[in-house]
Amino acid sequence: MVKQSIFGRMAQLAKANINSLLDQAEDPQKMLDQMVRDYSNNIAEAESAVAQTIGNLRMLQADYNEDVKNAQDWGNKALAASRKADEYRSAGDTVDAQKFDNLAKVALQRQIASENEAKAAEPSIASQTDVVDRLKTGLDQMKGKLNQLTSKRNELVARSKTAAAQSQVHDALKSIDIMDPTSEVGRFEEKIRREEAKVLGQQELAASSLDAQFNQLEDLGEQTEIDARLAALKSGGAKPAIGAGGTATSGSAAVGSTVDEADFDKL
Predict the structure, then answer these.
(1) In the chain, which ranges are continuous DSSP H helix?
(2) Alpha-carbon span 262 to 48, nearest angstrom
(3) Within a 13 Å sphere around the CA of 155, how many CA atoms are in the beta-carbon half?
(4) Which long-range contacts (CB under 8 A, 24 or more apart) does 182-186 make?
(5) Residue 132 contacts residue 50 (beta carbons within 8 Å)
């Protein structure tokens, strides 16, 4: 029963597909750690069962060795009793000779009994020896599987940490990639460009307003000069300045917008 339980557990563990279990695991590292613990516990149970089986085998072997030794001892006693009987018989003491012959027979009877017990134990010892050998082999295989599982766990954990580190580095590089418009730098640059465009628009709008104001000032200055010259003409105290014709023409054009040019021919 113990043998079947141990071999059944070893067969189940040997057939375990680590990769398929990992695919279903939400946290592969925790899954692997739990597998290592479970496997270690199973090995500990198997070691205990194997140790018990080995202990039972050693008890059978000890009983067998004792039976073999008893058979040898009774054989020696039978031989000694037979020789003693021969000595008494040679001396003419048939009574003691018969006595020791009877002792030799008893010793031989017990020798045969010990030999029979030893022979009866031989098949059990052979069977148990085979079981122990197989259990030791299976236990070694389980320990080998545990080493593989531990190595696999360490490898996958290291790979997982490496992948996480690479992902962090990638994210960090992406956040400062000036060529990537989705990066932090790219978004900041786009924000600055929008602000610069807004300033340019404000400047252009302000420039247009300023030009209009200057045009108004120029018109106002020209009208002021015209009014001043007209006043001078009326007072007779001043003459039109040389070269003022261009300005006067401009002024006339400005005023002429409400004057008929034919009126000048009537002068």
Answers:
(1) 2-14, 18-24, 28-90, 94-175, 184-235, 244-255
(2) 134
(3) 8
(4) none
(5) yes
Q: Output 105-114 pairs: Cβ under 8 A, ≥24 positions apart.
A: 105/78, 107/74, 107/75, 107/77, 107/78, 107/81, 108/74, 108/75, 108/78, 110/70, 110/74, 111/70, 111/71, 111/74, 111/75, 111/78, 112/71, 114/67, 114/68, 114/70, 114/71, 114/74
C-alpha to C-alpha distances, 125 to 2, 52, 65, 131, nearest whole angstrom: 17, 15, 11, 10
Reading the chain (267 residues) residue by residue, the pLDDT tens digits are 444 455 555 555 545 555 555 555 556 777 778 888 888 898 898 889 889 999 999 999 999 999 999 999 999 999 999 999 999 999 999 999 999 999 999 999 999 999 999 999 999 999 999 999 998 998 898 888 888 888 888 888 888 888 888 888 877 776 665 556 556 666 777 788 888 888 888 877 777 776 666 677 666 667 777 777 777 777 876 555 555 554 444 444 445 455 566 665 655
Phi and psi at residue 165, in whole multiples of 5°?
Answer: -65, -45
Q: How far does the chain reach from its first CA to its final CA, in angstroms?
A: 145
| Amino acid at residue number 117 | E
Residue 6, pLDDT score: 53
Residue 6: count other Cβ atoms within 10 Å of its Cβ: 24
Report d(CA 249, CA 233) in Å as an integer: 16
Please name the residues in contact with 237: beta carbons below 8 A apart, sequence gap of 6 or more: none
**Amino acid of residue 59:** M
